[in-house]
């Protein structure tokens, strides 16, 4: 700490020896098109922030074990940090290796969590060896940009909300040493929920403990004064908004309520980082899932999070409310004028309705979408080396009955993660998921062999809690009544790796654009599936809502002819709409309570 730009003593934070407060906002480079990084950072600076905070998503850089981590293009975290410096922002880096963030698998690559018997987030040698190798690749991009060598990185987080998961303090101390041994010399800190329980599990002596919470900041400050009296209070994740699961309402938090909560912490001398300042988008298959102990709760494609800077960059009322508090914390009551270019609406394509051509039959398409792998028992996605996407399982089973007296049986799937679309002899039989899979599906047989085909869709890996790292696909087996079916053929469907030729059989449409501009894609009569724009996988749609439109930022739109491709899993539609604004669904308003963790 002595050589770091930031330091603290007697519960006061210092920067270069002068009393200081961090006024920050979170922006995740992996959720924002790289052509828009500078624009979003500029907007954060205009909010009065002096710091940007970002997680590092390991699986974004290294989805396959056999390939070295990628730090180019969209994955060039060094460039993101450099752009922040250009805008006059300090940078806080949160490298995990676990990040939660409502991101698939909490940032862990599936090849890591799929290692049989591995212990996650503890001193398991298999786990720590993999972390060391990852940090060897990542940290040179961070260490070389620290304040000590003229860069903007002023602090680095150790792990993430560990007190919500485990109590292996040896692991936390090891994680700190791993950062220090690889050249991190700036201020290190942990982050945990704002209660004694979370501090017990995640904080260690000699390391700055910061908080994550959305309300009752005064109560958390009192706990810090009792537990960590020498440390300044820093809410490194102030939840000014919230994310959405499919099937819920879109969360809203009143701007004045959020700003008033921030003011309480700032008036007490604390520092605040707004999570999220700009949420961005879970493009592709980046969305994670939660699990409430009974059912899976997959996160929607948008990560707007009711943030001050909206998904499309718009400055919301919450932006202006936080801006007032951030400037007030610096002793400035008369706010400077905002640059005109930040107040202007982003260009948007004119609204239009486009006819959606019919695609190939879903079952026929997925049969041809990968190289089949055979096994006696069903294989999981991890065993197939598949990070995300879907798997088509096929086997022959004898369904009880006689030709003259058909019998109804129950098809059950044990250990189903997540959602299964089932065909018997080529006829669609229904859907099971990991909520009602135990009840099974009625199938009728005549005693003759029947071909079972089961398409299992990965809805996003669990990103928080004790089920983090849970496998995907069929983890158990397939039962006809109480009898297992064996000898399976699995066809991986790696949606995020599909090339343009792989999209040719999908439903589609085209549109002309005079020049690149934002647009919002809706499929009003479709059911559930995936959308590609000019070969780029935008993400998922689902008619259960709340999200209705998918945000397509201008850099993904071409001047001239543009192509939209749709893979529908449930109810093929006939129309694609380009809309002029977002529709994230019916709203549910309310404060984010301190006990609620991602």
UniProtKB/TrEMBL annotation:
Superkingdom of the source species: Bacteria
Alphabetical keyword list: Glycosidase, Hydrolase
Residue stretches making up the Glycoside hydrolase 35 catalytic domain: 13-324
Residues in Beta-galactosidase galactose-binding domain copies: 509-562
Family annotation (InterPro entries): B-gal_1-like, BetaGal1-like_ABD1, BetaGal_gal-bd, Gly_Hdrlase_35_cat, Glyco_hydro_35_CS, Glycoside_Hdrlase_35
Location of the Beta-galactosidase 1-like first all-beta domain: 378-493
Pfam families, sorted: BetaGal_ABD_1, BetaGal_gal-bd, Glyco_hydro_35
PANTHER family: BETA-GALACTOSIDASE RELATED
Protein family membership: Belongs to the glycosyl hydrolase 35 family.
Name of the molecule in the record: Beta-galactosidase
Naturally occurring in which organism (per UniProt): Paenarthrobacter aromaticivorans
